[in-house]
Amino acid sequence: MKKPFLFFFFLGLVVCFAPYEGAKAQNWPSKPIRFISPYAPGGGTDILGRALGQKLTEELKVAVVVDNRPGAGGMVGTDIVAKSAPDGYTLMLGTPSPITVAPFLNKKMSYDPIHDLTPITLITVVPAVVAVLPSLPAKNIKQLILLAKTKPGVMAFSSSGQGGSAHLAGLMLQSMAGISIIHVPYRGTGPALTAVMSGEVTFTAANILSSLPSVKSGRLRALAVTSEKRSPVLADVPTVGETLPGYSSGPFYGVLAPGGMAPELTARINAQLVKIIRAPALYEKLSAEGGEPMGSSPEEFARLIKAETLRWGKVIKDAHIEPQ
Q: Minimal CB count within 10 Å: which of 7, 153, 161, 320?
């Protein structure tokens, strides 16, 4: 007699709980939203996060507060999201480093990128710009490679942190060009760009969102972009692939939430974000700054994350980088 009773008891809970979850989705948002940016202010993630946060605030009529939580290549901020309630009031702007790369660089992680995060939508994929000081005697990627070969193990490049997009772009360049260069990680893209301008390192491969102003002002010279095709905003700058066929590197930006979010709530947040991403204001802003606006379903974003995890996992293993 106990088994039938328990079966119908739990069935009743499921039936009662489903409308409750639907009601939560319909009522969202009813209070301010915390939007975690897991990098330091001033970088491409911060720039995009604040633009999206402003548009979300205007659209949803609630405050969307951008909260910068840098550290450990984005893992500090990501951990905060992973441990938050999946109620739609904590979101994050995600990039490859703490999601698709961190599992290959860390023996122990405080979160599981697959189970502890819910993909909401892909915002954009942007190329990086290989940038140097204008005074450097290298006017293109071929000359940069030749310069590196004259001093093996001496030339240094900066990144936003271990496992960041600039780190990965540098690893791929090193592997495909057959050069030996030094990686110097910084706490964010802004400091990584400053390191080039101050002469601390020779080059960086910073995303176009944050490097474009310095290139346009003449403080940095763009040698190449890391995408498969040339960027419309830097049409005269070749791709790395024009020198090293097959080279392609560019970070994705997307919105994620804590794991275990109800499908109804995920769909509602996705619909709001896709509407904003594809609206003329943000679409034109992203395009003007070198990004390719997307706006995807949660399932499409999840598939991209899986594919990028496999791709960069191979790059890291081929570079013989041991997890720490």
A: 320
- Omega of the bond prior to 29 within 30 degrees of 0, cis? yes
Residue 82 Cα distances to 56, 113, 322, 324, angstroms: 21, 8, 25, 21
In tens, the pLDDT along 159-203 reads 988 888 899 899 999 999 999 999 999 887 889 999 999 999 999
Residue 216 pLDDT > 80, yes or no? yes
182 backbone φψ class: left, alpha, beta (φ>0; ψ -120 to 50): beta
Q: Clarify whether residues 117 and 91 are in a common domain.
A: yes
Amino acid (1-letter code) at residue 100: T
Question: Any idea what DSSP says for residue 324?
Answer: -
Average pLDDT, the chain: 89
Contact indicator for 253, 45 with CB cutoff of 8 Å: yes
| Cα distances (angstroms) measured from residue 80 to each of 34, 38, 77, 173, 177 | 11, 9, 5, 33, 38
Query: Of 219, 242, 265, which residue sits at a domain end?
Result: 242
Highest mean pLDDT among 1-10, 141-150, 291-300: 141-150
Question: Which residue carries 């991209």 as its tokens?
Answer: 304
Count Cβ atoms within 10 A of the Cβ of residue 135 and give its class: 0-12 exposed, 13-18 middle, 19 or more buried: exposed
Query: What is the DSSP pairing of strand 128-132 with strand 203-207?
Result: antiparallel
pLDDT of 299 reads 97
- The Cα–Cα gap between 275 and 267 comes to 12
Reading across the β-sheet that carries 117-125, which strands appear in turn? 64-68, 33-37, 90-94, 252-258, 117-125, 292-293
Query: Residue 241 is encoded by which pair of tokens?
Result: 């692939």
Q: 7 is written with which tokens? A: 């079966």
Domain range enclosing 233: 128-242
Please tell me what DSSP assigns to residue 73.
Answer: G
65: number of Cβ within 10 Å:
12
**3-state SS class at 238:** coil
**Is the pLDDT higher at 111 or at 23?**
111
